[in-house]
Design a protein that fits this description.
Shape of chain A: globular
Structural class of chain B: mainly alpha
Strand order of the largest sheet of chain A: 5-6-7-3-8-9
Distance between the termini of chain B: 34 Å
Radius of gyration of chain A: 20 Å
Number of domains of chain B: 1
Oligomer: heterodimer
Number of helices of chain B: 11
Helix content of chain A: 25-40%
Order of helices and strands of chain A: HEHEEHEEHHHEHEHEEH
Largest sheet of chain A: 6 strands, mixed
Order of helices and strands of chain B: HHHHHHHHHHH
Radius of gyration of chain B: 20 Å
Structural class of chain A: alpha/beta
Largest interface: A-B, 38 and 32 residues
Chain lengths: ~260, ~260
């Protein structure tokens, strides 16, 4: 294990992309939405639920990490914590570099605004500067193949067009850390190929990639390392092949199908 | 390395972002509205005519229609902003669960877009005033001060109600009710001189009082600015603003969990 001092240097030298230290996330389950009056007159009936329990995780720059686990094991929460969308109840998350997550696809898209206006809005929301958007907008539009509709309001767009534009914006952010989930294959077949190419390009360019998915094939193909979550804890982690084998053994072989 | 962007770059991004959101507010509001921006003037204008026609029988204030209009423009900014901002964070749920961004931009952009509208309305309104009262540089500066005070108070209060509304959805209903009462408790239909001396001290509790009285005073040379009330209003405003900022800062990290 590295000493604290060495670790600090690694972060400074940009070697560590993501570091989670003792991250826990508590959700309070409310069986009904609270109102002020209820809160005053009735005892609270709440239940605590720990979606993540003391997660320690270190992802180095350029590493490709898959996160697997059954439903409800905390995969999505972990992804949200790394993306910064939710704040952990305890522990700390340090990320080093510009990150983009496919959760952010279509964030802030507004039905009444035009395609162009939506590019600016979504771009700003996912952390691009206005200058950056100005310089990339042509590429974004042509990649998404929506040039004809770019001045039309968004309600005229098909779902496929919105997805394509959303993906195209994310693809042009030039991230250091990419967070992928089930969303990653979008659009029709030809666009799927294009978006897959972008993802492959990220992989080739030694971006740090975190994949949260049930798509074990994709994870085996791309990841160097797999983290296996079980009930909010890291159950096991290590080389992709070994972990996936164990995982398959536990969840699929026993039932003898799938 | 890239994280270590300079403070200037971050400020630039922040202002671009805030402006982008404000622009969206303005653009989205008038899509497919034929009268577009005119509504922001038509609305208080119609209110002025209706209220003026009725209340001029009961309330004796010189230049009553102009007097009403000065107040209604600012009131429209305040009430529209507050009613729209209070549920805004809850309404933008889809955005909050998708991206990490400075959340305060949601309420502040709504307020800023309304503020711009109000400023433009006042500017359009100014030429009419030139015929009736003598406007000086000092009175314009006083007007601007009052409007900035109103802006900051609205932002502080908006941050407070929007934050609390994430946890207690009652806040939205509370604001809807309060705003109606607040309208009558603020010198908009009347100036505070016509209120009995017994009730007058209660204006200390309404931070909007002095703002509206300053507007009446600076633009129309009417109304009554009482130093004690002014001091009370000013300190209450500061408390509300600080409370709003503090509560927002404390709660915003966990908004997503409550939505």
């Amino acid at each position: 294990m590295l000493t604290g001092f060495k670790k600090e240097r690694l972060i400074m030298e940009d070697k560590i992309a993501v570091e989670l230290k003792g991250v826990s996330k508590k959700y309070t389950l409310h069986h009904e939405k609270p109102t002020l009056v209820e809160n005053i007159f009735t005892a609270r009936s709440t239940e605590e639920f720990w979606a993540l329990k003391r997660i320690n995780l270190e992802i180095k720059r350029g590493e490709k990490v898959g996160i697997i686990g059954p439903n409800g094991s905390g995969k999505t929460t972990l992804l949200e914590v790394i993306s910064g969308i939710t704040t952990p109840t305890r522990g700390s998350v340090i990320t080093n570099g510009k990150k983009v997550s496919l959760i952010e696809l279509e964030a802030g898209f507004h039905a009444e605004l035009t395609g162009q206006e939506n590019i600016y809005l979504n771009g700003l929301l996912i952390g691009m500067s206005k200058k950056e958007i100005n310089s990339k907008i042509k590429k974004i539009i042509s990649f998404a193949d929506v040039r004809q509709f770019i001045d039309a309001p968004f309600y005229a767009y098909s779902e496929g067009m919105k997805l394509r534009l959303g993906f195209s914006i994310v693809a042009h952010t030039n991230p250091d850390i990419v967070i992928l989930d089930e969303n990653m294959a979008v659009g029709d077949t030809s666009f799927k190929v294009k978006s897959h190419e972008i993802i492959l390009d990220w992989i080739k360019k030694r971006k740090t990639i975190i994949v949260v998915s049930h798509l074990l094939d994709f994870i085996s193909e791309t990841c160097d390392k797999v983290v296996w979550l079980e009930e909010g804890k890291i159950f096991d982690q290590g080389k992709t092949k070994t972990i996936i084998k164990k995982y398959l053994h536990k969840y699929y072989n026993r039932r003898g199908h799938e | 390395m890239r994280e270590a962007s300079t403070i200037r770059e971050r400020l630039k991004y922040y202002s671009d972002f805030l402006w982008g959101m404000t622009e969206k507010e303005i653009k989205a509001r008038y899509k497919r509205a034929v009268f577009g921006f005119l509504w922001i003037l038509l609305n208080p204008l119609m209110q002025m005519i209706i209220i003026g026609a009725i209340f001029s029988y009961f309330i004796k204030v010189p230049n009553y229609f102009l007097f009403l209009f000065v107040g209604l423009l600012a009131w429209q900014f305040f009430s529209l902003s507050l009613t729209k901002v209070t549920p805004s964070i809850v309404y933008e749920r889809n955005l909050l669960v998708k991206a990490k961004f400075p959340i305060e931009a949601i309420p502040i952009s709504i307020i800023l877009s309304n503020f711009l509208h109000m400023i433009i309305s006042y500017i359009i309104f100014l030429p009419i005033l030139f015929f009736t009262v003598k406007l000086t540089m000092a009175s314009l500066l006083l007007t601007i001060t009052a409007l900035i005070w109103l802006l900051l108070l609205t932002i502080g209060l908006g941050l407070l109600t929007a934050s609390l509304n994430v946890r207690y959805r009652d806040v939205n209903f509370f604001i809807q009710t309060t705003i109606i009462l607040w309208f009558y408790a603020t010198p908009i239909l009347y100036d505070s001189t016509i209120v009995s001396e017994k009730l007058f001290p209660f204006f200390a509790l309404n931070p909007l009082t002095s703002i509206f009285e300053i507007l009446h005073y600076s633009l129309l040379n009417q109304g009554r600015i009482d130093i004690k009330i002014l001091a009370a209003n000013l300190s209450l405003s500061l408390i509300i603003i600080m409370l709003g900022v503090l509560i927002f800062r404390k709660m915003h990290k966990f908004f997503v969990d409550w939505l």
